[in-house]
Specification:
The protein has 27 helices and 2 strands. It has about 550 residues and is mainly alpha-helical. It has a two-stranded antiparallel ribbon with strand order 1-2. Helix 12 packs antiparallel against helix 13 and helix 17 runs antiparallel to helix 18.
Amino acid sequence: MTRSRNRTQMRSGGIRKTAKRLSKKIYKSFKKHKRNANYRKQIKAYKKRIPYKPENDYANFEMDAVERFSTFRTALEDIQKDYPLLLEEFIWYSTLTGDEKESVKNKYKKSGFNKDLWLGVPNNEIKDYPDGSYGHPSVSWKCTIPGKGRSFHLSIGYSLSLQWFLFNGEENHLIPTRNACGPGTKIELRLSKYWALLPLLSKIAGHTLKGTYPWNVPINDTDKCCFKHDQEYSIRGQSSQNIKMADWAMLYCIKHSEKSKGTEQIKDWLIENTIKSKIGAEKFVNDGMFGLITEKVDSDEDLPKTYEEFERRTKEMLARKSKAMKTHSKSSMKTHPKSSMKTHPKSSMKTHSKSSMKTHPKSSMKTHPKSSMKTHPKSSMKSSMKSQSNKTVIRLYESLLRRFGGVVNVIISEEIPHTFNYYDSEEANEHNKNKMKELNYTEKVNVMRVLNTIIETLDKSKKKSKKVGFKSENITKSFKSYKEKTQLPMGSNISLPTSVKTKLMKTAGEMGITPRNLLISAASVAIGVNPSAITQLAQLATMASNMNA
């Protein structure tokens, strides 16, 4: 029996082989179960999958995407036309391997900052090419922008080039959502017509994009102060005193700007204290030279020595400017009183009303006054920006020139620098109109914002139009009864007290209209017509009644 038992164990492999075989079977079963479990998990996750579409969260996704791509494409075409091989150099750099990129980057850094290109190369160093373009021997890209400022155009091209991006490095913004608050801001690119290329050029250079779209517009007043500060820093050939004043101007601007709310107020506080710390540290650390763009330490100008003196001078200058603007607006109103107080001059109203009343007397009486009076008030000037066309911007600009004169050019050139002329001349006006014809959507929105600001600022000094009012209870009741009716018959007779009738006759004589039409105009006020339109309504009614007679 023992012998047969041993033979059976040898054929079956023994206990060890049996255990090994069972373990393999269990392991295969476990792997199969795990695969099935993973598969079931994937199926379950796929069934719970919710497709995401940006238009679900962004109502204007389609319109914004088309507009932003159009802006990007326009900037792409402009830079290829104005600076051949500049964008091509970026694309070439993006196709290199990691080691090759590092080698090119180190060579550009070793060549250092090209101060001549930054400040503007002499005309005798500019190289002309057979295709009509020009450039500089130290760079591979060219420039095709015509005009006398070839040196300036080359310096702008240098600030857009791959060499400058790799040498200057990334924008070090303390708050990534701000467009200009921080050192290293590519201010020349952000304020040029190529600003939409900022994410492309930054990505190719290996930089993280900073700011909020649109990247050429400040997001609040503090960011606007940062833009002004960077513009002062980017001016070529400044002394260290001028650059120190730019820091003071930024601090003054932040102190007197409109305060933000919530977390943005904390961010503004951080930026304000950062510039304060910078000003304080430079008294001990800096040796008088501010960055690589400084040409000299001292300036020949009479500049303030301390921030307190700078603040005092700034307040005095702003007070003089405000006084000059008020006197200029008053003088322009005296020169063109009716054209400045109204959008349609009296002469054009008369000719238009006469010609329209001859052809359509009744329809012109009903439609023309309201439409002409309600076409250009402030509320309609601030209507939807997206519906404004370039022609509308130009018409608004022309109307402001007629009302306020050359002060419009001064304000718009300060708000949007390097674009519009600030001179008070016909040539400057034509130049600004031509610039407005070439605006894209975002630039157009910015210009409309500035023009609306001009309206708000300068309309404060505009004289208020006199309102015609009656205190008699009887005349008030007559107005109420008129308001309740849909229309007043032309042959209606309204009996008035003697005192009211005398006052009505006297007021009508002073305004040069008939008493009956003055009464109709005052009744229009009771309905809801703008009080400033009483005189014009009465004049139209008088002319219509005379023509009917």
